[in-house]
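Summary for the steering committee. The consortium agreed at its last meeting that each partner would contribute one worked example illustrating the joint modelling workflow. Our contribution is presented below. We chose a case with several input lines so that the handling of multiple components could be demonstrated. No manual editing was applied between input and output; the record is shown as generated.
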Amino acid sequence: MKAVVLVGGEGTRMRPLTETIPKPLIPLVDRPFLHHVLDHLARHGVHEVILSSPYLEARFATFLEERHGDPAVTWITEASPLGTGGAVANASRHLDETFLVCNGDILTDLDLTAMLAFHRERGATGTIALTPVDDARPYGLVELDGDRILAFREKPPDRVPGTVNAGTYVLEPAALDGVPADRMVSIEREVFPRLIDGGAPMHGFVSDAYWMDLGTPEKYLRATFDALEGRVAGHDYRAPYLDHRAQVSLTARLGRWVVAGPGARIGRDAEVEDSVLLAGAVVGEGAVVRDSILGPRAEVGDGARVSGAVLAEGARVPPGGAAEGARIGPGATLATGA
Ligand code: GDD
Ligand code: MG
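What follows is the complete predicted structure of the assembly.
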């Protein structure tokens, strides 16, 4: 079984972290998120994955050099953004039988084996995993009759509850008939509505599996804490999670929901809660960090206070500074008085 994992978005809502790190390569607890996605696929019998990204391609090259084992990864060129539909069509020469498509920013323990059996039993052209939500606006809202899909509405304007696209599809190659691979095509706005309107059997696989789209800093932190709490099958961590190469002062106070990556340092009398420190991030003496993401080698100076903030790779808050809700770009220093 093969899968296309969509990893080529710009991750705009995760800026400025995603200015240098593609969203699927941001670590979740102990390793880049894409490892979690690929491992999940491997557990369900996917042995080949096709990836492409017009964005920060070199970063993926490094990831792929380090990744070994199942599934094998085929990297294909996507010179300019093709959108979610165009990117799958661009992979179609590798797809000659039933295949999977996954958004590359979803943490889930969805039972893909059961989803595939469901798809085959119905003889579907496409099966879309669905999850219930209270507010469908950020997602693709799916209307069902039994498990047959009647309509797919991407990003509905009104706050309505419903079952939404969970970003995992089982598709037949025929689902891609006529989808161009040389321009931007949205699978959600163009391909699915056209298949549904044309009468193709499209089914929804509703599941109450763990599911989180890591599209925003808040959701990324939520997913991290859920993984720490053992709420995601296949993830078993100790909370707080401190990499063995992290250095944490004995007098620092750490909440339960803290991740400190390799080489991260937390100084004397510092306080860290509900936050992620990526590799080499530094929290100075007596500094306070809450509800924040510190990118690789980001620095919070002695006595500084940071909350609800996202610091990109190498970003700095000077000693004594205060950064509430701040977004600090790669290598930038928080302007004093901000
Ligand atoms: N290769 C490639 N090329 N990948 C892309 C491109 C592109 O041009 N554009 C986006 N992607 C990838 C992103 O990296 C991400 O993994 C996935 O496609 C979905 O894009 P997002 O930008 O994260 O979309 P979304 O979260 O607003 O909405 C999507 O996901 C929701 C579930 O989380 C839609 O599929 C919704 O219908 C769905 O409910
Ligand atoms: Mg998303």
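The pocket of guanosine-5'-diphosphate-alpha-D-mannose (ligand 1) is lined by residues 6-9, 52-53, 78, 81-84, 87, 103-106, 139-140, 154, 164-165, 167, 188, 213, 215 (CB under 6 Å). The two ends are 52 Å apart (CA to CA).
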